[in-house]
Amino acid sequence: MAGRDLRALFSTNDPHLVTEEAFTNRQAQWGLVAAALTEHLQHIAAPAFDVTDFEAPRTNVLVFHGVGGIGKSTLSRKLEAALTGAEHRPSQWGAPVWSGGRILPIRIDLARSAGTDFERVILTLRLALAELGHPLPAFDLALRRYWEHQHPGEPLEDYLSRSGLAARAGKALPQQMQSVLADVAQALLLPGTVGSVVGEVTGSLVRALREHRQSVRALAGCTRLADLLQAEPDIDALSYYPHLLAWELAQLPAKKRVVPVILLDTYEDTGDRTHRDLERLLQRVVWLMPNAFFVITGRSRLQWADEGLQGQLDWTGRTAWPGLADRDIPQPRLAATARPPRQVLIGDFSPEDCADYLARRLTRSGQPLIDEDLRTVIAARSHGLPLYLDLAVLRFLEIRRTGRRPQPADFDVDFPALIARTLSDLTPEERHVLRSVALLDSFDLPLATRAAGMTHEAPALRLIERPFVQHNEFGLWPFHLHALIRSTIRTADDQTDDRWSPRDWQQAAARAFTGLGEQRDTSPASDRMLLIGCLRQGLALARDFRLDLGWLTDAAWAYVSDSVWEPLSPAAGQESANTPETAADALVELLSALARRQHESRERTADRLTALVHTGLLPAELNEMGIYYLAKAQRDLGRTEASRHGMQLVMEGGGRLAPAARRGLAHLARLAGDFPAARAAAENLGWAGRQHRVLGDVLWPHGDIDRAAGSYATARDQADQHGIAGERATSQAQRAFTLAFSDPTLADDEIHLAQQLLTGLDLRATSLTVQIAALVRDAGTTENLAATRALRASIRDTGITATSATLELALAFHHAVRDEPDDVQAVITRLRELTGADDHSFYVDIAHYMADLPLPGPSPVVWLSSAQSVRRHWLNLVSDRREHLHSTR
User: Fold this and answer.
1) Considering only CA atoms, which of 405, 454, 402, 394 is closest in space to residue 430?
2) Under 8 Å between Cβ of 344 and 332
3) What are the φ/ψ torsions at residue 444 (nearest 5 degrees)?
4) Which of 244, 269, 286 minimizes the C-alpha distance to 117?
5) Which residues of 734-758 are buried (b: 16+ CB within 10 A; e: fewer)?
6) What is the Cα–Cα distance from 200 to 313, expressed in whole angstroms?
7) Residue 207: which residues within 8 A CB-CB, separation 6 or more?
């Protein structure tokens, strides 16, 4: 209910100040439905009402909107039950007296999980009306034609049974449709079996309607029927068939008159404010059935009265939907003389509705008393909680009473009253659990109980039933506190009798941290989702309460082992301007730098890691992780000596990353052009050092495509066996890149597989390798070359020298295939600028070999075989590509 806000009213001497207050009250919502439906029944019973009037404004819709989990679906179901009969109506709800026909509630859940598409919506409506036991000829003919066109060979009865719709008059509908076809065929004197002549029936009926034959006079009054039967029977045409339903309902005799009340639930799943395809179809249903009444429940208010939507929806604006243009205070109290509003906010408010609420909560001379900037700040702080908005309004009036104009900074506060109001009806044990879980982003019953230090789950079980505990059954941990409640409990000046001391919070944080570690340690080793969830929450707790790292050390190693690099949440992953002070701070910065290196320049990564390893805050084994990834970043940046020094330190330390450091030294030998040394190092790496991938890296520069691709395939398969998703994707990307030089057709499949393996991974360099592979696959043609400039810019942003050189090599291959020596020479110039005098110089040599250009002088590259043999291999690849292109023209 809503009325005057007496607290606000008595907080000011201004007699012109208008105040309103909102409350949640399901009984008031029922009263609102009853009043709106009564008004609708009176409207359609008036002599001037015409179901075929397509221009009159529509007032046949009522909207309840609010945040998820506030009870909108429950309300929708309760309304359906209450409209079905008095025996299903809650006792506290009033008993309305209907006149003008029988009420027929039809509830349709539009949730994606329910699998409801537009076709099912229309079938559900028709099935509900089948209970009347009366055929609806105009609609049934159109639907039968649509069904046979869109579902050839599938009887409607079978579909209804298979889809679960048959429970509601599933057998009556096909029988009624068959009866309609038979009657019409008989009226038109058509021969043959009705089941096989639906097309002929339709065509003959259209001609009869156009010719105004007496035999079809029963359908002649439906002036749009012939047009709909002639239209292409697609989903767009189906969305206009509800007009036929409305017309048929208007033709029913008075004793069989029925008024459908169609409850559309979970309306937010019809799309968003950009994609409105399904919403457009549903709006047609509402518009074309003015004799039906619609109750829509969803997370946002309907925007149909917004003029700006013209073109996205068929009917928009205040003229079309006068009731939807109203923006009254949510949950209005019904007055006997007031027209019931048609959009009602229940539960928590959306940001837009928070601002809208504040604009109308306090007004003077019809204008908002709180200015727009201030409304935006308060709305953001409220997290949609109506109580916060109430308290903010009182604070506004309190500040205003001092003679000072309220500023946004005045509302950068928590309201301790929120805690008192939240805790007021909780038991002491429930309050204890509530404070404990306020430390967690999300939780389950065991974790809540562990964090509270209790031996029984009963208090946690009671707590999760409270409205401020939200439930997501698909979440890793299914429960979480309302964001504002959680923030306030953790940060506000708690004046309750059982408030916690700093030591209480510290002990609860330690218990919660231990509970997370226990869940992580007892989970299957492959449960990466749990690993990431535990890391996100555990890092935040360890950082905020200066806890020892404990299980976070092993979790950090597990995080880096798969090379997936999920973000560890803004709280634990954001870059801090402050120097780390504890081991937990340093670990947050380390894992953040490793994850962010997929999105920022290697120069930035190197700077962050350099600063970190010099703090000395991390234990030795985690500091080794920082040194290793710093050496990798330095290698990517072309800082060979620094990278070699770091890799040597890690290898000599003999820790977990020693095999990876040996691989890094092998890579450095390869980049220096010392292929014999690189191969010798690679042959002793084993799986831990990714031996086969390194061998592939050694072989492909020699033009030894088949052996290199085979090595990458072995590396990919080994990674798959070990469950290392990042390594699997990287090896496959390298295989696709290598095969792209020799077999474009096979490479296409390999590129597609690499893209699939990258799904869900955050491997920027590997993704770029796949894009370069596509360029090599299309070498000699103009395809994909238009994207080269954007790809070069993306690679430049990473700062990875080798990837830039690889792109130039792909372009050199393209120009060599097209016999464009000047362009190859331009590529060579760019390669020299990228690679300098030493590292990566083999790229320059390969570019010369592709175009059969002489080297300008002695080369520092030491090949596994003779340079002439390598030149011959690359020339053969260029020649083979030319022949391939010639044969496909």
Assistant:
1) 454
2) yes
3) -120, 180
4) 269
5) bbbbbbbbbbbeebbebbebbbebb
6) 35
7) none
Angle, CA of 169, 174 and 178, to the nearest 5° = 140
| CA-closest candidate to residue 18, choices 3, 36, 1 | 3
Number of Cα atoms under 13 Å in the Cβ half of residue 231: 18
Hey, what are 3's tokens?
Answer: 């009325």
Do 213 and 197 meet the contact criterion of CB atoms below 8 Å apart? no
Distance CA 438, CA 441 (A): 8
List own/partner pairs for 428-432 with CB under 8 A and 24 or more apart: 428/498, 429/454, 429/458, 429/459, 430/459, 430/462, 430/463, 430/466, 431/496, 431/498, 432/459, 432/498
- Lowest average pLDDT, out of 18-22, 297-301, 648-652, goes to 18-22
pLDDT, one tens digit per residue, over 354-397 is: 777 788 777 777 778 888 888 888 888 777 776 677 778 878 88
Backbone angles phi, psi at 481, to 5 degrees: -80, 150
Ramachandran category for residue 353: left, alpha or beta (phi over 0 → left; psi -120 to 50 → alpha): alpha
pLDDT at 433 over 90: yes
Across the beta sheet with 367-368, what order do the strands follow?
17-19, 362-364, 367-368
Please write down the HEC assignment for all residues of 295-333.
Answer: EEEECCCCCCCCHHHECCECCCCCCCCHHHHCCCCCCCC
CA–CA separation, 740 and 742 (whole Å): 6
Long-range contacts of 718-721 (CB under 8 A, 24+ apart): 718/687, 718/692
Nearest to 468 by CA among 516, 428, 419: 419
Classify residue 384 as left (phi > 0), alpha (psi -120 to 50) or beta: left
Question: What is the per-residue pLDDT across 173-216, written as a single tens digit (0 to 9) for each?
Answer: 777 777 766 766 666 655 544 444 566 567 677 676 665 666 56
466, 521 in Cβ contact below 8 A? no
Q: What is the spatial distance between Cα 129 and Cα 670, in angstroms, rounded to a whole number?
A: 76
What number of other Cβ atoms are within 10 A of residue 253's Cβ? 7
Q: Give the residue among 794, 763, 727 at the shortest CA–CA distance from 565.
A: 763
Measure the CA–CA gap between 763 and 760, rounded to whole angstroms: 9
> How far is it, in rounded angstroms, from Cα 453 to Cα 432?
9
Is residue 422 within 8 Å of 437, Cβ to Cβ?
no
To 5 degrees, how large is the angle CA 128–CA 81–CA 247? 30
Q: 579: which DSSP letter?
A: P
CATH, domain range 52-132+253-346: 3.40.50
The pTM of the whole model exceeds 0.90: no
- As given in the structure block, the two tokens for residue 667 are 């890579």
| Beta bridge partner(s), residue 64 | 297, 344
List the structure tokens of 211.
Answer: 């010719």
**Rounded Cα–Cα distance for residues 327 and 306 (Å):** 12
Q: What's the CA gap between 595 and 535, in Å, rounded? A: 13
DSSP bridge partners of 310: 313
Distance in angstroms (rounded) separating the CA atoms of residues 373 and 410: 13
For residue 480, list its beta bridge partners: 470
CB distance 106 to 261 below 8 Å: yes
Token representation of residue 206: 């259209």
* Amino acid residing at 578: N
Structure tokens at 359: 């604009």
Cα–Cα distance measured from residue 569 to residue 563, given in angstroms and rounded to the nearest whole number: 17
Q: Which run of H or of E encompasses 480?
A: strand 479-481
Give the SS3 label for residue 743.
Answer: coil
The vertex-709 CA angle with 707 and 714, nearest 5°, equals 95
For the chain, the domains span 2-24+347-413, 52-132+253-346, 137-251, 427-604, 698-888
CB atoms closer than 10 angstroms to residue 815: 21
How is domain 698-888 classified at the CATH fold level?
1.25.40
Distance of CA 436 to the CA centre of its chain: 30
Residues in the chain: 889
